[in-house]
Input
Amino acid sequence: MAATDTLAPPASAPPAPKPVTSSRDRLRHWVLGIWSVLALLYLFIPVFIVVLFSFNDNRGRFNFTWEGFTLRHWAHPFADADLAKAMTNSIEIALIATVIATLLGTFMAVALVRYNFRGRAGIDFFVFMPLSTPEVVLGAALLAMFLTLNINTGFVTIVIAHVMFTLSYVVVTVKARLEGMDRHIEEASMDLGATEWVTFRKVTLPMIAPGVAAAAMLAAAISFDDYVITSFNAGQTQTFPLFIFGATRQGVPAEVNVLATMLLLAVLVLMGLNVLVQRALARRDAVRTSA
Amino acid sequence: MSLRTRRRLVPWLFLAPALLWLLLFFAYPLLNQASVSLMTGDPENGYTLTWAFHTYWDAISQYKVQFGRSILYAGIATALCLIIAFPLAYFTAFHAGRFRNLILLLIILPFFMSFVLRTVAWQLILADDGRVVSILRSIGVLGSDGRLLASGVAVVAGITYNFLPFMALPLYVALEKIDRRLLEAATDLYASRATAFRKVTLPLALPGIFAGSLLTFIPACGDFINAALLGTPRQYMIGNVIQSKFLNILDYPTAAALSFTLMLFILIGILLYARLLGARNLTEAAI
Output
């Protein structure tokens, strides 16, 4: 531990806190702060609106004007069968696509960072390409292929599409984690006679686990929220974003607001739990190293 | 199998599944689309490959307005995102102190509410009988019958809104990496705050500006949700055309030709932009 501490690059040394001195500095500080608060407010205005209108006592189908407070939409969020079906489809698709994309993407990232082989730069670029292609193009190209091959679009084709475009995000995220890691530990494992597979399972995987978890979260979030690519490859299958977009003409039911708010709360709870777990782990490690 | 050949095979074994998936469902569809774009025919009798390059010319000349509008809207939105996000990222990286993680969380959090739904919420905010319009009318920014919804302003505001985090996060990452001692050195050497910013902070933030602009501009160029929900056909972008050609009109060759042209535009745009910011600078700074 002590050895790595002294080897740490000087760039990571904590910056000395500079006291805010002149009044011009203080003004600059305030302007930046106020600007940031306004920018965050801009990001949150629609979120507030969505949450607020989940409590709106609207009479007709339209949920556009405030007509009083009610909890009735919260009492039966799954009352609309089509909405419930769209929601379960979205969750199932996100889960399946995330598992496949995380699995394939993690292996690919390990190969790209840990091995030197001919064609690596080419593959690096190839993996980056889906990220720099507009989603309309990706969705349209995939639909054209399914049409040419006479494949009916539906649940399976949505999963195929989602794996395709979340894969690159997974590779990029896991690669970032791998690049920041000491590879000597893996070399030591192989020197001690472990095969590549055992090294991967017992050394590499535990070390990159946080990166893999982050990649999986990202993949699930992107998959769940995707409208563009899904709209091309969904056939008759409904997902949550497709349902909302389809409902805009006749008015989005308030139950949609309820479900979206519930989801946001669930994410907040998960994030809070994550912080608590990380803190507990850090405390445990601190105890271990001092012992 | 010798250890040497096994060691050489391992990376390919690790790569194979993901590579295969991308070849089958990314590369092959694009090639297939290239061939579709050169077909002629009609929805009833099907399309056959006739190497009809004129489709490209016809499609571009017919939809040049939507192409121009996509690039214009996406360009304005990217510039607005940069203007809004840079001070935010700067504040978060340099002055936020213990609020840093909270601000980052707040930047990411809206992502977890459906993007289509948040765009629908903008419909409500910008509606003709809404508060924003009535305030703007009373202070004279808008005429007495002026409106926000169903205008280019609404579409650009929606795009800016939707892609703001994509600009803010890479900017933050680039700014956060800057070694503070460089700035101290600059001021120790009698550079003014402004000079230090221009000569130290800005060049070191370039990779973030580059990454953020691409992450904003590329999806914005192909976006059709904002134009569909906040605009009218008079604000439609090329994404709207591609989508309706594919899903409603079933004119696959034109749709394919349009999406290829869009890809080409964006590729050229990326290259020009990289040139403008200095590609060498970027790759060096990225490492």
